[in-house]
Amino acid sequence: MFRTPKSDVLTVVLLTLAMSITAVTTSARPANAVTCTPDGGGNYFDGYYHNPNAWPQYNWEGASAYIVVRWPLASCSDGFMPWTYAWVMIGSGDGGPGDGWGQSGYMRYTASDFSVQLQHVFQFANDTNRSGRLGDTAGELHTIYVGTPATGDKPAYRVLWNANCSCLQGSVDGVVYASSGFNPFTQQWRLPLVPQFMGEAKYQTGNMPGTAAQPAAFSALGAQRYSDDVLVPMSCSMYGVDDNTAMWGRAASSCTAFTIWQK
Question: What is the CATH number of the domain that holds 53?
Fold first, then answer.
C-alpha cells in the first residue's frame, strides 16, 4: 500500500451501540448572517464529524452510513438555484495545504433549466488534475451524478480506501461508481483523516434535508481503520455542527445513529 509510513500502529478500541451518547458532544460554531439571495450562498452544515485532536487514539481512512433520502422544505428557492446534500465524507485533517475530501451521498439541486433533480452524488477534491488538494488550480472539484434515489430509500453510502488501486472509492449499496485519481496518503493530505456525516445546504436559511415529521436519518455509521483497512462501527468521538439552530434540528440516538431536519 503506497501510504505514508506509520511510525506506530494505533490501538483502536471498538465502541458499540450500547455506549452512552453522552460521548457525542456539540462544538460551538460562529454564526454567519447570510440571507437567501443569489449572492448569499455558501456551504452550511448540520451533522457530526470525528475530532482527531480530542480523540487521538482513533485513526481512520474511510466512512460509511445508511442515509434515508428526504427532500427538504422549499423555503429557499424562487429562482435562486439552491441545492441540498446529505453525505458521508473522509477528509484531510484540519488545515494545511493538503485540505481535501471524498464524499458519497445524495443531492437535490436546481439545474440550469430550473428543473429540480435528485441524484446520487460522488465528489473528490481536485480529482481533475489528480492532486487531491484544494488551492492549486481552478475547477477543483470532480463531481459524478448517478441514478435517481426515491424519497424514503435508505442507501448505504461509502467512501473507502482501496489498496488495490491506491485510491478512494465512492459507492452506493456496495456498487462502486467513482474512484479517485489520487492517493490521499501521498498527496499531502494531513493525517489523521477525518470521517464526517452531514447534511449540507447552499444557503443558511433553508433547504436542509428532512422535516420534523420525516427527518433524514443516518444509521450504522462506520469508519474504516487505518491499521488494517477494516470497516467497523464509528467510535463515540464525534462533535456536532449546526450552522442554523433556529431553522435546522439534529438529534443523536446512539454513537452510530442520528437524524437531521429543517424546522
Answer: 2.60.120
